[in-house]
Amino acid sequence: xxxxxxxxxxxxxKIASGKSTxxxxxxRQGSAVLIGEDxxxxxxxxxEINSGADYLRCTGKLRAAIAPHIIELLGSGVSVxxxxxxxxxxxxxxxxxxxxxxxxxxxxxxxxVPDDICLARLRARNAEGDHPFAASEEQFHxxxxxxxxxxxxxxxxxxxxx
Length: 162
Known about the structure:
Blueprint: E1 7-12, H1 19-30, E2 33-36, H2 37-44, H3 52-75, E3 80-85, H4 89-100, E4 105-111, H5 115-128, H6 137-144, E5 158-161
Parallel strand pairs: 1-3, 1-4, 2-3, 4-5
């Protein structure tokens, strides 16, 4: 019996850039487990995330709790699509720590989508009301201020998406 080499797929892109859509596609293509930050945060902290500080507090707790599970999945040969924000150096450092505890391969998918398209998608998404994170345009701009694309020095295998 041959064992496949697991892959950790990570996603970098602004709010409404298409990360969750890409995550679902990667899951279907690669027989992977999809772990989505927005759904977990909405379930664990309903109505509690109204600022960047709230997000950092809640996602920090979630990441601490879920990291051992992700490492266990990868160590068991299961690929993971991690639909968590990889938009800052600190967020990517956490993801690197997951990789450092496994022998998994990885891909950092970067969605390069203009702000006006993200905002149009955000408005449509909010109007539909079925996404677990209904960010306001103000929150979009607040979070976008902290967006830092990955650099080659970070050592990730980057896959660009337009």
